[in-house]
Design brief:
- It is a single chain.
- The protein is mainly α and about 240 residues long.
- The protein has a 3-stranded antiparallel β-sheet.
- A hairpin with a 2-residue loop joins strand 2 and strand 3.
- The longest helix has about 30 residues.
- The termini are far apart.
């Protein structure tokens, strides 16, 4: 991502993450940050269609550690999929190693967003009271599921809007081709990949997490070149 674009996103996020920021103000900053990230993704895709060397298909591994490693992995997948990246989860000690595949610009966007959302989720959980009589870990897992679901939905909408704004029928074809190329790369590396079973959660925090997902700022406040060192930011302990 260009320094100019990154600077704009960082400023928006710095404002949204300020403790004095109201929910309405945070929502406005969120909308603008999302728009910038989505527009950047489409522009890079169109540029790469003319010159593939500007945006090659690649991969990277993100270490996601306990606590709530499975839930953090779910959040990463919720960010990656709408941005046309694929995520393969591998067990690694007490957590997971998430193998991400995608075009360089999309991997960059996933890194930017995931890093920020981990911090925002941690802040949201700290500020959410667990209902009396409910197990804290169960509540927080369902909270994170709701948070991830809404984040994924919002990203899909932002990506679709960015395509419409470009106003050309070729954009959808370019993006579909990119998704196909990423899928082929995943198959080359993992020819016998299987889908994880559906996870069932017992906690009642889904709606509260979903509400936090609507308020979340879809961007990141750190540099975008070292996801494995920042994916460890702690959520409340189990």
């Amino acid at each position: 991502m260009s320094e100019a674009m990154l600077s704009k996103v960082r400023k928006l996020l710095a404002q949204a993450e300020d403790a004095a920021c109201t929910p309405a103000e945070a929502a406005a900053f969120t909308a603008k940050a999302t728009e910038l990230i989505a527009r950047y993704g489409v522009d890079r895709a169109l540029l790469a269609a003319r010159d593939p060397t500007t945006d090659p298909v690649g991969d990277r591994v993100v270490d996601v550690l306990a606590p709530y490693a499975r839930d953090k992995a779910g959040l990463l997948a919720a960010v990656a999929d709408p941005l046309r990246c694929r995520c393969v989860r591998r067990p690694a000690g007490s957590g997971f190693a998430l193998h991400l595949f995608g075009f360089a610009s999309d991997l960059e966007r996933v890194d930017l967003l995931f890093t920020s959302l981990l911090v925002q989720a941690a802040h949201g959980l700290v500020g959410t009271v667990v209902p009396p009589g409910e197990h804290p870990a169960a509540f927080r897992r369902s909270w994170l599921a709701g948070f991830a679901r809404v984040i994924s939905d919002r990203l899909r909408v932002a990506e679709a809007d960015a395509v419409v704004q470009r106003g050309t029928s070729s954009v959808a074809l370019v993006l579909a081709d990119r998704s196909d190329r990423v899928a082929r790369r995943v198959t080359e590396v993992y020819p016998r990949l299987r889908t994880a079973p559906i996870r069932r959660l017992a906690g009642s925090g889904f709606d509260a997490g979903a509400a936090a997902g609507h308020r979340a700022d879809l961007g990141g406040t750190d540099a975008v070149d070292a996801p494995t060192t920042r994916a460890h930011r702690g959520l409340p302990t189990q």
